[in-house]
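hey can u check if this looks right to u? its 399 residues, i copy pasted from the old doc so theres a chance i mangled smth
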Amino acid sequence: MHELRASAASLLPALIDLRRRLHRRPEVGLALPETQAVILDALAPLGFATRTGRSLSSVIARLDGHRSGPTVLLRADMDALPMPEENAVEWRSEIAGRAHACGHDAHVSMLLGAAKLLAERRDQLAGSVLFVFQPGEEACGGAQRMLDEGLFDREFAGEIAQAFAIHQFPTIPGGSIALRTGALMAAMDGFRITVCGRGGHGSAPHQTIDPVTIACEIVTALQTFVARRVPVFDPAVISVGKISAGTAPGVIPDHAVLEGLARSVSDATRAIVTHGLHTLPCAIASAYGATTRVEVGTGDLESLPLTWNDPKITAFTREVAADLVGAAGVVDLQAPIMASEDFSLMLQRVPGVMVFLGTQPEGCDAPEPIHSPRMMLDEAQLATGAALHAAFALRALSG
């Protein structure tokens, strides 16, 4: 592992440059042509077989070892967030309202570094490595779109035995590798609650059925529902992130719409939450003479399963990580986190694991979390991430 880490460290200046190029030009959603072009340009000298998406700017590259064997899938997400950046750094976002505030630029850089490391060690591989660069992780359905387009097509991908992904976290000490057996990240269900009342003049609310006040009561009731109906050691989170109603201050509207996300870490709690989302708003609205229409995880509302780390592969990964960064650098998470990941859809098809790479900036005692406009990461850990991707594949395909 020492030799692999040294090789990764030698790539660090190039990885930092690549990450900063992507950081300056953040793209969101499924169409990421500039990011795709950077990836294809970096892969070109390595001589891999590549495939790009038809309906999204994905890239899949395959490296075949010198001996036959199974395929290991390594995945990085590519997209940025539709939000501003507030960091006054030379490489800050050049596009207003877009920022790589989740670190996907780092993920791409690390996986491209691993591609170079593994290309140089092709003779050590008894099988193939599939490098998956995925757009649209941020609630845009990118993983499902790639699956629909044949990500697991055996003609190109071979027999995929296991999958691996890294997510950087600036709130975890730099260089640490955090992981957990079983549930790592929450299942997610988008929901939309439409409250149907009767509009009228704001001076005469008694002549109306005000959907705005009913909607506000539903928001509060959903929080009480979680606190009183969901087991405390099997948690759930219901967050209403958007309320839409009305056209003018003096007009009580006919409708109000609540939109949000529900997250849970077990099938049992997910069922409780889903049932509550359907029944509670209806009961509250009915008490005031209104009606509701509730949609959960259907149509344009995203639904994702648990991100589930296979126990056997998690144990294997823990050994690889300990060899790479030392046993003290491997952190066992005591509980899953309530954020969600569409890598979970790939893990439904093939066993695998996701780990968290600590990227807390050196000397920073209060780092900004992911999705903050001031999120910063320790770029030195790009080499750690590249080495970890490569080490996982090398060990899994050692023959």
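The longest helix spans residues 2-24.
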